[in-house]
Amino acid sequence: MTAPELSALQRRLNIAESRPGEDWLVLVENVPEWPEGARPPAEAPHAAHAGAPFSYEASQGHPRLTEALVKREHEVSASRLADESHILVTAGGMHAIGLLLRDLAGQGYRKAVHATPVFCGVRDSMRAAGIRNKALPLTGTSDDLALLRSECTEPTVVYVNLPHNPTGEVLRPGYLDVLATLAERPDVHVVYDAVYDSFDFGPDRCPTPVDLAVSEPGLTIVNSVSKNYGRPGDRIGWIVAAEENIRRLVPRLEWEAVSINGRAQLDAVAAISRGNTELVEAVRAGRAAYLTHSRGLAAAGPLPLGGTQLWLDLGVEDIERFADFALERHHLVLTTSANYAPVLPGRIRFPTGIPAQRMRRGLTAIHQALEDWKTNDGKGTGDHGDSR
């Protein structure tokens, strides 16, 4: 088997990192940034932290963290049923997804369906688990049920990510019936990815269906502190599921990883207990800043209802060539649709969880790069443009 190649995104980041003396404008991250002065301080060491490196935590998760997560789901997801028996702590959201897919493959699932597009890491996790994937033109409405039923002709994983990365589509109340209907089928398992569930700005916000997950074995929720609490370095995620599913997953986590880092779990307790109001408001402010500063950008359009990024169509036929052009001439590092599957032409992911000043600078730089691209017909790679 040949080694996988670096992603286009990582390749561009490596180029920027190899030239530290130059002024790069990096617009790749979809983890929101805490506003200046609101970022929580590093957690002060205490007795539990001091002892964490010298012992294994419980494989299901530190009791203080599972308790904090239950409280969180009661408050954020309006759960009335979740308790500690429904929670499993993981090493981030992607670990949760991979762990769950490997478990489902062990039960005989060999097919997965998902919306278009999907983060390539999720697609690759499906394939690594021995599950073939298929992208579907899902709409997030009740109309999806007929299509999904027609696709589920064998044991099938239905992967749902809401708010969606990267389009920002959110869960709508009418979609709960679709999820419940699918989860009732013995040959279907719904994997519901809720890693952006703090960032639903719709007028009729529908909470993550935690109570459906804990009462229906055919639906499992994955979540993470990376996006929802702006702490990707902790590598702490969690699974919410029916008790019987958690009992089956804990031994798998134990033999794969033994347990999750105890210090990081205790830091996550403090972060979740503190809350993320300032972070959510920073994303809301970023969305407003985009509307203010995007005038004149051809890609500008209505904001999605959720998420921490925008899925912009720059109207460029070869978006990879354009991203390389913008990198060299304008010192812009962009996330293109190569980060998703299937690859859609002309698209970039633009963050909304960044300060307004960088938002304005980024939009100006993209506009200038597009004008430069048109002037040079995508051929110029000489002197760097001055978008800084």
From TrEMBL:
<dbReference type="InterPro" id="IPR015424">
    <property type="entry name" value="PyrdxlP-dep_Trfase"/>
</dbReference>
<feature type="domain" description="Aminotransferase class I/classII large">
    <location>
        <begin position="44"/>
        <end position="366"/>
    </location>
</feature>
<keyword id="KW-0032">Aminotransferase</keyword>
<keyword id="KW-0663">Pyridoxal phosphate</keyword>
<comment type="similarity">
    <text>Belongs to the class-I pyridoxal-phosphate-dependent aminotransferase family.</text>
</comment>
<protein>
    <submittedName>
        <fullName>Beta-methylarginine biosynthesis bifunctional aminotransferase</fullName>
    </submittedName>
</protein>
<dbReference type="InterPro" id="IPR004839">
    <property type="entry name" value="Aminotransferase_I/II_large"/>
</dbReference>
<dbReference type="Pfam" id="PF00155">
    <property type="entry name" value="Aminotran_1_2"/>
</dbReference>
<keyword id="KW-0808">Transferase</keyword>
<dbReference type="InterPro" id="IPR050596">
    <property type="entry name" value="AspAT/PAT-like"/>
</dbReference>
<dbReference type="GO" id="GO:0008483">
    <property type="term" value="F:transaminase activity"/>
</dbReference>
<dbReference type="InterPro" id="IPR015421">
    <property type="entry name" value="PyrdxlP-dep_Trfase_major"/>
</dbReference>
<dbReference type="InterPro" id="IPR030898">
    <property type="entry name" value="3metArgNH2trans"/>
</dbReference>
